[in-house]
Amino acid sequence: MKVYVHLMFTVSTLADAALKPVQGAAEGVIEMKYTIIHDCPDPMGQDILRYMQDSFKGIEGLQFIDLQSHPMEPCTGCFNCWLKTPGLCIFHDAAADIVKEIVNSDRVLFLNPLTWGAYSPQLKILLDRSLCRVLPFFETHKGETHHPSRYEKSPIPFLAGYGADLDQDEMELFKSTGQNLNDNLHKTGMETVIIRNRDDFHLLDSFAGTKSMGGAA
Questions:
Q1: Residue 143 belongs to what domain range?
Q2: Within a domain: 216
Q3: Any idea what the CATH number is for the domain that residue 125 is in?
Q4: Whether the model pTM is above 0.90
Q5: Which of 53, 136, 143, 178 has the greatest number of C-beta atoms within 10 Å?
């Protein structure tokens, strides 16, 4: 227990800022922060992005992060973010900055082409680099052994995969992968959606807490 308390104190001194909601212009008003992290190198992905940009237009606190524009080093499994510099990766690159944005968000959406039932390579790198978000201890969650979260605050996660020619096995595997992501990093309610064509674009509307906000149909 002494080691646990010491590490938690170290984390509070090393981690960047105080993970608090942004205060709105009016006193007592708290703005929601929405982060959309996308890896969309193909025409279908770009169509989905345009849909979201149109549908979510006017939402305060919304940001888009393009993984294609942010080089990231893969996780080496050194565990320094657990043992030597708790909460901080040895690589000071875009992934470290994006992880901070995730932790400080209220809702986060991961959008990527569904790749053999799993994440795209770029998103996989980012999620591997999210190891710093959990502690090197164990807890029981839903009858399974997992690592507890490093921070009290965790965003509501939303995972979206897309692809025109997906079979049932790929889609089921992706949904299972999304549930594992939630259990490992968030432990909150996660919505996982699969987009196969433009008729499915509306499935993304619930990310901002609304079923329909106009936009491309």
A1: 2-208
A2: no
A3: 3.40.50.360
A4: no
A5: 178
Q: CA 167, CA 173: separation in Å to the nearest integer? A: 10
Rounded Cα gap, residues 159 and 25, in angstroms = 31
**Is 64 in contact with 53 (CB distance < 8 Å)?**
yes
Contact partners, residue 189, CB within 8 Å, separation at least 6 = 156, 182
Residue 149's DSSP bridge partners are 134
Please indicate, yes or no, if residue 56 is contained in any of the structural domains: yes
127, 181 Cβ separation under 8 angstroms: yes
Torsion over CA: 79, 85, 88, 91 (sign): negative
Q: How many domains does the chain have?
A: 1
The sign of the torsion formed by the CA atoms of 16, 22, 27, 29 equals negative
**pLDDT of 1-17, one tens digit each?**
333 333 333 333 234 33
Q: Is 175 a residue whose pLDDT tops 90?
A: yes
Q: Provide φ and ψ at 191, rounded to 5°.
A: -100, 130
For residue 48, the SS3 value is helix
Q: Does some domain include residue 7? A: yes
Cα diameter, the chain: 56
Roughly how many angstroms between the first and final C-alpha of the chain, as a whole number?
55
Query: Can you tell me which residue has the tokens 């680099």?
Result: 129
- Give the pair of three-digit tokens for residue 149: 């979260």
> Residue 214 falls within a domain, yes or no?
no
b (16+ CB within 10 A) / e for 158-170: bbbbbbeebeeeb
